[in-house]
Input
Amino acid sequence: MNQAIRNTWVVAVAMFALLFGSLTVVQFFEADNLNANNWNSRTLYKDFDINRGAILVDGDPIAESVPSNDGFAFQRKYNDPQLYAPLTGFYSLVYGATQLESAMNDQLSGSGSELLYDRIVRLFSGAQVEGASVELTIDPQLQQLAWDLLPDGVKGSIVVMEPKTGNILAMVSKPSFDPNKLAGHNSEKVVANMASLEEVPGLSPFLNPATESLVAPGSVFKLVDTAAALESGKYDADSVLDNPAEIELPGTNVTLPNYVNGGCGARTKADFSFALEQSCNTPFAQIAWDLGEDAIAEQARKFGFGQSYNIPVNVTASQFPTGMSQDLLAQAAIGQYDVRVTPLQVAMMTSAIANDGKLMKPNLVRTVRAPDLRVLQSSKPEELQQSLSAENARQISQWMVNAVDQGIARGAAIPGVQVAGKTGTAELLAGSAGNNSWFTGFAPANDPQAVVSIVIQDVELQTGSQLTSPNAKQLLEAVLNK
Output
């Protein structure tokens, strides 16, 4: 009988230990996963009763929580919604959170470790939970100007950065959308609104095109070729480049011609300055053959290709293809074939050239403040890597100045200011309306205050030219006039 009691007791203790262990796993080790699970509607509904922190630009809220009387304590509200939607993203009962609403959720919801003290105080006082506010690096005047310079009906992005700090001063894309339509508490209306947005050509409400869309860069990629050539030690400012009107692509019956709208035909031999000024294709294809795929790929990597970042929103890795035949390498060298970049990547590459070769990590968030306004986080410039030597960066900068002063980037010229720039045109596949038109550059060349990178997608050449270099001029002038 005693043995039976002992056995029963052992079984009871074992079952209790198993139950206790299961509860421990659920309540402690799996708590974060359960809370984050998209199917955990109770957590999501509870979050909509929190006074979520604001996202601020120059002290003004572009996203904030306002009192609601529809069964939830608060409603998320977006101000200037189209202007800032790709940055803020949305906070939705149906579709969850995107962009900054997602990346900064711990701070905005008040659940981050920085706010532990605040939560303890409010627990004992009975006060309502409040989230932290997030102040962006965005300049509201530049943001508005960049938005206005992109016509409605086009697909394009503009990024304005400080090359010395990595701070993003403006980042806009069109088409855009109104995140208020996805933040409502009526699920049926939200689903219907999403369906309508998904029918807009060129729009994905879940993505920020400036950081996540991969676009053919065309001739702005020649800056990578030029840096690779100088860094190799095989080329310098005195190098003479063959500049035939066209070259045969090995293994094909196709030729690669020079850019027909520049002045490349004036010379059969060229230096780097002329080749960049007129955006000649054949010299850069031959440089790629000479240096080899690995050297071009390595220089691209030094500019940030192949790497994703959190700034704090996600930045998709830009792509330079590998394992190419010689004909494809020639096309990749001029930013065609399968070379794909985000608009932010082009701004990063240009910033490294402007900043004596130092590549700074892009940044969107200036400060995070608790509800009592004390600073919880404050951003500091972060150097990612040395992309090229300071000497070579300054040499490329001078050639980019020549491209604006006497080349095909003249539309960006500002009287009395040295502007460094490079244009690009990427031909798209058959069936597209036209090209991707690019401008990337900075000013003043001797003390860069801002980098401007613009892409207008799938447009005719003349339209793209009118919307890139001249618009960059206006943005650079706005920065310099502050």
